[in-house]
Amino acid sequence: MRLIALVDMDYFFVACEELRRPEIKNKPAIVGSDPKQGEGRGVVMTASYVARKLGLRSGMPLSMAYRIRKDTIYIPQDFEYYEQMSAKVMTLVKVYADKFEQVSIDEAFIDISKRAGDYDDALELMRKLKQEVKDKLGLPCSIGISVNKLMAKMASEDAKPDGIKAVKEEDAAGFLSRKPVGELYGVGRKTGKMLEEFGYRTIGDLAKANPVVLVERFKSYGAELHNSANGVDDSEVQENWEVKSIGRERTFERDTSDRHEITKAIREMSKEVGDELKKGGFAFKVVTIKLRYSNFEETLKSRSLTHRSVEPEEISQVATQLFDKYAETGEELRKVGVRVSNFVKYKGQKRMAEYA
Ligand code: TTP
Ligand code: MG
Ligand code: MG
Strand locations in the chain, DSSP E? Predict the structure, then answer.
């Protein structure tokens, strides 16, 4: 049985702010883009649940937020901090996943089919995850569990705030049918409006609609809409590709053109990079060398392997080949660097071939 969960943090930016300014808890707080002393077109990025009860919403102009409540606490965005908190959340979530796909700063799909045999298992596992995120980071989240990504997302929305909800396949149609069509995952404001104009008020209306008519009206998107409204979604949880890189650089005590000395440095750095890769459980595909000459000119040269590798020897080999091919003969080097990138997480994966 396929079991997919969607973990989404509750009022994420404001929740992060509450951690470092507990005095704003239980107050109408919002995080927003720069209001530029009332000149800017700043909007609310998110509002605490207290603020939501008062009518404050994401996307609302800040000026309107202030009109609704004079005592609204405005906090300027601090993306760097939210990214840091997000990374901490995702590190915890990954541990619970057979497959992990982060889809925004505060949410990720996880495939838990292998580790949870049924819905009871899945619920127990997700309760544990939720508690861990709360205990370790002090942040609330909501989790939806179902047979596919679409339904997991819809269930998580229903669980908000601070809840868990599982929707079984046989209950999907009933669960969706009475919800307004605008709440269907993937339907934006514009499509939502169009759907209503055609008379599809609820997701159930859309589910019962003739798919041929939907394709006439919405082109290829019509078929997708019809599937979604029926809770059908075959898409897999797609493992994220790590974009970061690991590298080392060495500045020689005295500038050198001695191949022996340079390739020795490359070997040593490749070993260190390889050790770090192994610790992180990453496989790499691209090797890059950096050559800085005495005159401070710098060259970067890369080679992409046809497969993903975890071997330090391979880093060293490719880096040395790049050096031999591209280094200006006889020119003295001040510095040399080795870097690997285009990662994929391999630890916990059974078949490396999947990523080759
Ligand atoms: P969401 O998960 O959509 O919202 P949320 O976490 O604030 O609240 P909820 O409890 O309903 O999940 O978005 C995550 C963050 O992304 C949110 O905290 C702020 C940011 N964001 C924007 O910057 N602009 C927007 O329009 C929305 C919706 C979110
Ligand atoms: Mg959220
Ligand atoms: Mg989200």
Answer: 4-9, 29-32, 44-47, 73-76, 99-104, 107-111, 141-146, 164-166, 246-256, 282-293, 298-309, 333-341, 344-345
Domains and CATH numbers, the chain: 4-11+80-172 (3.30.70.270), 14-75 (3.40.1170.60), 175-229 (1.10.150.20), 245-355 (3.30.1490.100)
Q: Which of 17, 18, 107, 239 is catalytic?
A: 107
Which residue's CA is minimally distant from atom 23 of ligand 1?
45
Q: What is the chain's pLDDT, residue by residue, as a tens digit (356 residues)? A: 999 999 999 999 999 999 999 999 999 999 988 766 666 678 899 999 999 999 999 989 988 888 888 889 999 988 889 989 999 999 999 999 999 998 888 999 999 999 999 999 999 999 999 999 999 999 999 999 999 999 999 999 999 999 999 999 999 999 999 999 999 998 988 899 999 999 999 999 999 999 999 999 998 889 999 999 999 999 999 886 554 788 999 999 999 999 999 999 999 999 999 988 887 777 888 999 999 998 878 889 999 998 888 889 999 999 999 999 999 888 999 999 999 987 766 553 333 332 22
CA-nearest residue for atom 24, ligand 1, is 45
Predicted TM-score (pTM) of the model is 0.72
Residue 132 catalytic? no
